[in-house]
């Protein structure tokens, strides 16, 4: 009887050991998810990514119980602040050089490709002027909306595209509006104040402009490289590096990237994204 | 009772329009705030949903009650009213000075109309599309153009001067108030004085804007009605 009892105890011991071993092996994963509960992470990004970052951050908050304090604004301005005295824990800038500069300054620890923007011709629904290609912007009578004074990705980039296409001067003659805000320009285009504008595809996905315009592709040879890639990286001020890393992992995961695709970007984790990563050399060397 | 109703109305509109008013001053990147909300990049601003309501309610309130919006609905008006309680120079501005200073708001109104209709309401600050409360304000100031800093500085100085002259902002600088003041004669309902008025000026003494019914800067608040010793203040109907 005594021996039987001993045997049962041994079995119980082995069982308990098995449970303990399983727990020990899996506990880092369990405690990692639970460990982020009630924690907070400050994430900054280029303002254009806000439509993707907001719902993605919300999903991450629901998943982990932590709080993402998100700020989205013109990346160059945020970058300038970060190169000064401002701090954040995760930063997703536009323009590869900004990520590289922050890393060289020792402020960004590492970065990886996040997504790519796409420049397109935007026309009002129904394409009343019958625009078919970028060259049509130079045709007499076509009313073009330009935003030369908007922040660089919206203003300067669109002017470079027209210059590379060799039609800048003719298009400037066709300009019916010279704006300083791409969203105001989109509103004017939808109201029919113009026939065509060079815009980022993301603008056509903003809820207030959705399904109100049509897009026409611009040949890639006309697109300037600088404003196209977006990266995401951990900053040296990350208080909980595991949380920052986990958040970045989520953003570049299939779930996270789906928000960027929905917002009009090309996700880095896609076949096209991988091609663009190679093309633009988005590598944290 | 009327005063209680007005306070309830002010509080209700503070809940509805308070945040929008705040964003217009501190986060709106445009030269003239509250006018480009439909296409503004600042995602967090409640103006995206409220601006049409605001621009519909404003002319309706003008047609019905003249400058009634200022005293019954405007969150800035409520703030001004509260701050005016501790103003240093209450009732000490003579009529000529009042008229001269009041011209400032028409200059600001003219400038606003020029910016909106002739200059396409330029953007003077980098919009912080979304972010934490204080951090976003800090970043807006940090990356704003000089013109935006001057514009916002003038608004803040205008409100600060309420500590010296009651309702300084509403009386002399507010372009919306100026527009309503210029057109208030068309309103359907307005407080005014009957022939029974004995010029005792009790109404002026209780008025937080230092005026009398239906005179310059009267916002149709109705606070003076119950204080008239000869009951000469009535709410008149008709043009």
Describe the fold and architecture.
The complex is a heterodimer of chains A (285) and B (239). Chain A has 10 helices and 11 strands. Chain A has 285 residues and is α/β, with parallel strands linked by helices. In chain A, helix 2 packs antiparallel against helix 9. The N terminus of chain A is likely disordered. With 239 residues, chain B is mainly α. Chain B has 2 domains: 183 residues, no CATH class; 52 residues, Alpha-Beta Plaits. Chain B is elongated, with a radius of gyration of 18 Å. Chain B starts with a helix and ends with a strand. Chains A and B meet through helix 2, strand 2, helix 3 and helix 7 of A and strand 1 and helix 6 of B. Strand 2 of chain A pairs antiparallel with strand 1 of chain B, so a sheet runs across the interface.
Which pair of chains has the greatest number of interface residues, and how are they split between the two chains?
Answer: A-B, 26 and 24 residues
Number of strands of chain B: 3
Instruction: Trace the largest sheet of chain A across and list its strands.
Output: 2-1-3-10-4-11
Main sheet record of chain A: 6 strands, mixed
Name the CATH architecture of the largest domain in chain A.
3-Layer(aba) Sandwich
Radius of gyration of chain B: 18 Å
Q: How many structural domains are formed by the residues of chain B? A: 2
Low-confidence stretches of chain B: none
Q: What's the helix-strand series of chain B?
A: HHHHHEHHHHEHE
Helix content, binned percent of chain A: 40-55%
Q: Specify the structural class of chain B.
A: mainly alpha
Oligomer: heterodimer
* Rough outline of chain B: elongated
Spatially, the strands of the biggest sheet of chain B line up as 2-3
């Amino acid at each position: 009887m005594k021996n039987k009892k001993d045997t049962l105890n041994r079995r119980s011991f082995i069982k308990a050991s098995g449970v303990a071993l399983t727990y020990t092996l899996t506990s880092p994963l369990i405690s990692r998810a639970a460990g982020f509960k009630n924690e907070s992470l400050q994430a900054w990004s280029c303002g254009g990514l806000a439509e993707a970052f907001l719902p993605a951050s919300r999903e991450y908050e629901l998943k982990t119980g932590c709080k993402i304090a998100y700020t989205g604004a013109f990346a160059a301005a945020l970058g300038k602040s970060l190169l000064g005295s401002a701090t954040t824990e995760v930063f997703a800038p536009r323009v590869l050089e900004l990520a590289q500069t922050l890393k060289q300054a020792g402020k960004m620890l590492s970065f990886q490709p996040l997504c790519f923007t796409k420049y397109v011709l935007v026309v009002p629904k129904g394409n009343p002027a019958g625009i078919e290609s970028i060259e049509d912007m130079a045709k007499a009578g076509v009313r073009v909306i330009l935003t030369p004074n908007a922040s660089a990705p919206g203003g300067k980039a669109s002017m470079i595209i027209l210059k590379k296409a060799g039609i800048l001067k003719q298009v400037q003659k066709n300009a019916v509006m010279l704006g300083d805000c791409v969203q105001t320009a989109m509103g004017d285009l939808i109201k029919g104040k113009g026939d065509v504008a060079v815009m980022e595809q993301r603008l056509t996905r903003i809820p207030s402009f959705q399904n109100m315009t049509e897009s026409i592709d611009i040949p890639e040879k006309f697109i300037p490289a600088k404003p196209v890639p977006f990266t995401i990286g951990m900053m040296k001020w990350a208080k909980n590096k595991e949380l920052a890393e986990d958040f970045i992992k989520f953003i570049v995961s299939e779930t996270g990237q789906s928000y960027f695709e929905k917002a009009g970007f090309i996700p880095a984790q896609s076949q096209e994204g991988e091609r663009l990563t190679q093309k633009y050399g988005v590598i944290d060397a | 009772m009327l005063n209680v109703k007005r306070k309830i109305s002010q509080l209700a509109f503070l809940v509805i329009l308070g945040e929008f008013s705040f964003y217009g001053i501190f986060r709106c990147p445009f030269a003239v705030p509250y006018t480009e909300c439909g296409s503004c990049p600042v995602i967090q601003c409640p103006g995206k949903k409220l601006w049409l309501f605001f621009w519909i309610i404003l002319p309706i309130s003008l047609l019905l009650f003249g400058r009634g919006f200022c005293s019954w609905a405007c969150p800035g008006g409520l703030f001004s009213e509260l701050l005016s309680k501790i103003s240093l120079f209450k009732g000490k501005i003579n009529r000529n000075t009042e008229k001269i200073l009041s011209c400032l708001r028409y200059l600001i109104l003219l400038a606003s109309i020029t910016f909106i209709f002739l200059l396409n309401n330029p953007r003077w600050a980098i919009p912080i599309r979304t972010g934490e409360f204080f951090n976003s304000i800090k970043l807006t100031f940090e990356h704003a153009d000089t013109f935006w800093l001057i514009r916002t500085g003038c608004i803040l100085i205008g409100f600060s001067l309420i500590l010296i002259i009651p309702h300084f902002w509403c009386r002399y600088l507010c372009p919306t108030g100026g527009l309503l003041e210029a057109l208030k004669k068309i309103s359907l309902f307005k407080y005014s004085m009957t022939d029974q008025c004995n010029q005792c000026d009790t109404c002026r003494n209780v008025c937080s804007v230092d005026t009398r019914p239906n005179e310059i800067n009267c916002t149709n608040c109705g606070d003076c009605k119950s204080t008239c010793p000869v009951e000469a203040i009535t709410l008149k109907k008709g043009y």
